[in-house]
Structures are given as C-alpha cells and as structure tokens.
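User: My collaborator sent over this chain with a note saying "see what the structure looks like." That's all I know about it. Can you take a look?
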Amino acid sequence: MKTALATVTLSGTLREKFAAAARAGFDGVEIFENDLTQFEGSAKDVRLMADDFGLEIIALQPFRDMEGMPEPQRRLKFSMFQKKMQLAHELGTQRLLFCSNVQAYSSADRERCAADLHELAVMAAQENIKLGYEALAWGYHIADYPDAWDLVKRADHPNLGIVLDTFHMFSRGNTLDCLRDEITLDKIALVQVADAPSLQMDVLQYSRHFRCFPGQGDMPVVEFLNVLKAKGFDDYLSHEIFNDEFRSSSPLKKAIDGKRSLLWLDDQTSTLEPAFKTPSVEDIEFVEFGIDVQGSNELIDLLESLGFSETHRHKSKDVSLMRQGNINLILNREPQSQAREHYQQHGVSVCALALACNDIKSTLALASVINVSASVIKQGRVS
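Assistant: Without extra context I'll predict from the sequence alone. Here is the result:
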C-alpha cells in the first residue's frame, strides 16, 4: 500500500514540505491549493520539484460548491473547473478532489446535483482526469458519506468516485456499513485517514484544529482499514490533517510521525507474518535529559525531592548521572551535542532512552523502519 500526505498537513514552504515528505518515506503528496498559490514558481516548477524529490503528485484539491448551484454561479464554477483541469495537467496529476456544497442557496434536489456531477465527470473524462467527491461533515445538504455515495451512484460515470475521509465519516457518527456492503473498490477515488480525540463541539472547529494522526485519537481507524483491506484495496493511504500544533512544528518531524502512524495502522491490520520478530524490551537502562547550565536547577531540585542524588560526572563532558536505586538519569548539558539541540527545540525534556532488549538485530531493524535513530551501546543494550 502506498502512502501520501496533503501538503496542508505540514508547516513550511512547499519545498520544505516536499523535502520532509520524501525524507520520511512517503510516496506521494496531495497539493492543497493554498500551497500552490503561495508558491513563487509555476505549476510545472512544482511538478519538477516533486520529481526531484521522488514524489508523485496524486491529487489537486480542494474544489468547493460545485453541485446544485444556481445560475450564474453554476456556469462560473464549471468554467473555473475547466481551468483547474489544465492546472492538474501542468502538475502531472490525473486526480481532482471536490467536496460537498456548503451554501444554503444550493439545491437539495439529488437528481439535479447528480446531473451536475455527471456533467463534471464527462468534462473530466475528456481530459483523462478522475474526480473524487467527498462529504464534508458540515456540508449543507450532503454531510454523510452514504449520501455522497448516493450522489456518486446517481451520477453513474466511470470518471467519478467517492473520497473516503475518516474524520468526516466518524465525526458524524457514520458506521462502516455503507463502505462494507455497498461501495465497490473501483469507485473509491482516494482514501484520507485522520484521527481525532473524542470531543463534543462545533464540527468545523473540531476539523480545523483537532485532527491528528491515526492511533493518536479515538476514531475507529483500524476497523476502517480492515474493511478496506477486505475489499482488496491497495491504492494510496493519505493524510489530510488540520492541526494548530502540526502547523507550528518541524515539517520533517511531523512527516516522520505521520509515516510511523501509517506503518502502525498497516501493522494493526496485517494478516501476514512480520518481516522480523518484534523485540522484547527487558529494562530501561537510563533516561537522558537535555538541559542547560542555567535552567537545570528546577529539574535537579525536583529529582532530589524524589530521592535522586548525583553519583557520577563525566571526565571531559558536562554530563552527570543521578541515581535512585536501579534508576539511572543522565543530565546532559554538553554545548555541542544532540542533547543541546533537543533542549533548544523543546526545553528541558527527555532526549534519549537506553533500552535493554533481547534481540539487537530485530530492534535495530524496527528502529530503521520507523525512522528512529538507534545505536548499540554494548551487547544487549540499545540506545
């Protein structure tokens, strides 16, 4: 199964987002139109940049309020859509995504809306482009994915499919019945997986600020992927995450977290034997903190109040060891070190762990898969 993320998921410039996605091991990206408009070059430049990073541009999105519009808005929307298809060609993608109408003045007539979708799909077929239609959780007439599926079925065109977004599905309390029992594999245009904590609040604000990666929230994303895999799905799994903390964080670190979450999700739904044994962690040898000379007193006072005391100091580095019984805590103040870099980014916090494990080879293999820096300290010990 291939992995992708929408550029809106990460902070930074479009180049920084591409670099982070590639470094994290993603296969593709969805171009969020805001990122494209803020890019100084052309769409062709974006395509070449993606090629340089080894990324496929899997979709351009989002387009809004396309179905059920009155005139002259309908005519303007369809004219704009024609131009967006040309933009998709310049980007080198054959997939465009649009979401359900949020306008109160749009038509609720399913047959009329389906006719609009059909006409858009006819236009797309002439350009060799596939369309994906998604139910926004705050759509005015279409807010649930079974209703979006109803429109896609009524439109009845091979170039039109449904976009399955787990946030929109589960924030509305949708079940998996429609996906399991009705939606066919060939009509799935794209799958976007996002999680979220269980919150009772306005769904638009919920969507814009509280999405997170699979496994970090409370939505049944594992059950969702199990249903997809049972159907034989093997296309892209993509992230589309709106989150304030993500947008203020390192794009690389968030991209790596996102890739790990998809590996976790795949592992949770796999029926195959793993490529290597899952190693057993037998003990924690030490916990290392990144601190500085000036700001370390508060942490040291706290640790001393918990019964820790300093027992050793490094001969040549500004590193000390505090112990209580068999618990070892390393305080690293060394200026030119990974610990200092971690401190500058996060403040006083844990920067490393040393784990005693039963299988060094498998532990290092797992660390490599999930993009964790690990090294062998001594036989049987991994940091």
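A starting point for your reply to your collaborator: The mean pLDDT is 93.
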